[in-house]
Design brief:
242 residues, FAD/NAD(P)-binding domain, 7-stranded mixed β-sheet, 4-stranded parallel β-sheet, globular, binds flavin-adenine dinucleotide
């Protein structure tokens, strides 16, 4: 009988791992607390070994077809004047024509589509309790259902509930690095196209990133602050109180 594996989280790590475990004969179940695979997010880079992994999964061409092709990154000083404008590869070290940049949500969909027929996905579900029995793990889910697996893997991101259940409260493992940022989308009022724009002064920064063409799209906004203590960033929308 094949060994059973439970993966918590169906974003990038979850479906990618599910793909490989399924290919090597494991019986895989993935639980995701959202009601469907989550879209959204600005583009992320796939470089070097990650491209090779995609190739071995037979997904390279599918992913390459969604390549964003950022043309330039522009840096502004505190007054908003242009300091410099460069090709992204100057900064990222990406290999033009090999590395791929695509929207986070697109990558998640491609990975999910590659494995959804071979692996059981349970949405609106999450792990409520874990009992490690040495050679197996007894799991109670938020739905009340119970099941035993040979292995449980946390692929549930930054504030992983699985890690907390297995290792203790995450506060014990945090190391605050002094930087807070927020990410959101907003109207592309500057008409940016396939480019990023970044403003920075000591302790504060703000970036706009346009993955698409001109003013038809939205841009991704990412303000950030240096703060000795964790800060709560309030983003004010035009016409609304903060
Ligand atoms: C909606 C979203 C937007 C993002 N946008 C960007 C971006 O623009 N740029 C960027 O660089 N990175 C972004 N990230 C983060 C990036 O995807 C990850 O940091 C990185 O790719 C690692 O992926 P991951 O699969 O390990 O974790 P994540 O991508 O963080 O995914 C974790 C998954 O686990 C699920 N989950 C969380 N807790 C539980 C639980 N208790 N039970 C079951 N499921 C759970 C989440 O819903 C999510 O689907 C985003 C992540 C998400 C979820």
């Amino acid at each position: 009988m094949s060994r059973s594996v439970l993966i918590s989280g169906a974003s990038i790590a979850g479906p990618a791992l599910a793909y490989w475990l399924n290919r090597y004969g494991f019986a895989v179940t993935v639980v995701e607390k959202a009601s469907a695979v989550r879209g959204g997010g600005y583009p992320i880079d796939m470089r070097g070994p990650a491209v090779e992994v995609l190739r071995r999964m037979g997904l390279e061409e599918t992913v390459r077809a969604r390549h964003v092709a950022t043309r330039r990154l522009t840096f502004l000083d505190g007054d908003g004047d242009v300091l410099n404008s460069v090709a992204p590869t100057v900064i990222t070290g990406d290999e033009a024509g090999y590395d791929i940049e695509l929207a986070r949500g697109d990558l998640t969909s491609v990975l999910y589509d590659a494995v959804r027929d071979d692996v059981e996905f349970r949405f609106s579900e999450s792990i409520a309790a874990l009992e490690d029995r040495g050679d197996r793990v007894d799991v109670t889910f938020s739905s009340g259902r119970s099941q035993t697996f040979d292995l449980v893997i946390g692929a549930d991101g930054l504030h992983s509930k699985t890690r907390s259940l297995a290792l203790g409260p995450e506060e014990e493992f945090h190391r605050y690095l002094g930087y807070c940022f927020a990410g959101f989308t907003m109207p592309n009022y500057l008409g940016l196209s396939h480019e990023g724009m970044s403003w920075a002064v000591a302790g504060r920064s703000a970036s706009l990133y346009a993955a698409g063409d001109g003013d038809r799209d939205q841009v991704h906004g990412v303000p950030g602050v240096h703060s000795r203590r964790r800060a709560l960033l309030r983003v004010r929308r035009p016409g609304r109180a903060a």
